Amino acid sequence: MAVLTSGKRAELWKEFMSEISRDREVLGALTKQQLRAAVDAIDDWLHSNAAALNSAIPQPARGALTTAQKARLLVFVVKKRFLEGA
Amino acid sequence: MASGDTLLIFHPYHNEPPSSSPATPDLRNQIPVLDFDAGADEAAIFSGVMPRNYAGGGITIYIHYLATSATSGNAIWQTELERNHEAGDDLDSDSFATGNKCSADAVDGTSGKVCVVSIAHTSGAQMDSLAAGEAFRLRLKRLGSSDANDTVSGDLELMKIEIKET
Predict the structure, then answer these.
(1) Residues B43, B68 contacting (CB under 8 angstroms)
(2) Per-residue pLDDT tens for A18-47?
(3) I need a surface site. Which of A69, B18, B35, B42 has the fewest CB within 10 A?
(4) Angle (deg, nearest 10), helices A6-22 and A32-56
(5) Coil, helix or strand for A71?
(6) Does ipTM come in above 0.95?
(7) How many interchain CB pairs under 8 A, A with B?
(8) Whole-model pTM?
(9) d(C-alpha B108, C-alpha B126), whole Å
(10) Count of CA atoms in the C-beta half-sphere (13 A) of B45
(11) Do A30 and B68 make contact, defined as CB atoms within 8 angstroms?
(12) Is A21 in contact with B38 (CB distance < 8 Å)?
């Protein structure tokens, strides 16, 4: 799968800023352009490491799960690791 | 009235939302505000009648606002006027004059503290030739996507607008 298009990255960036504003969270001394750079970098990293992540999933899960299901599972793990209680 | 006198004040509840990209009503500690997204050019529109005691010297528009959560970055606001005078433009479509932008305005280091920025419009074309006693609309925009100098990474909240004779 290719990296997200610039348009999709922009959508994601705007949604994130809206959510941060709704939660009244402070992003430190970060401009929105710097935040966008972080979005781009994370998407680039996921693109570069997608194969490695897939390889890390043991069989039979690796073969049985669809790409979308693996992505959802990744979201669940990330949320549990980093967001719960944060 | 003379130079330096307040002509009009607008409150968030006076907003007549545009059909696209409107700023959204919100409360900040129960204070009514209008939220302008960081990643879009959202707008609010206010209508009024220029007071009879406006002396024709141009106006300065003061925008009182807060950053929702950001404690750094610069905001870019733009104001545009549309004269709605007798037998004037057909109001079935917008005819705002070219807008004026503020200089990049740094938000306060505490997000709950009010920031105030001003934008001047000289008499004539910059005010769509608006005169005393005539109806008008004022469109306020945050240039969140079209101006790279707007760097605040979150919503801006409009509290009040003051129009003063320059």
Answers:
(1) no
(2) 999 999 988 878 999 999 999 999 999 999
(3) A69
(4) 110
(5) helix
(6) no
(7) 62
(8) 0.91
(9) 29
(10) 16
(11) no
(12) yes
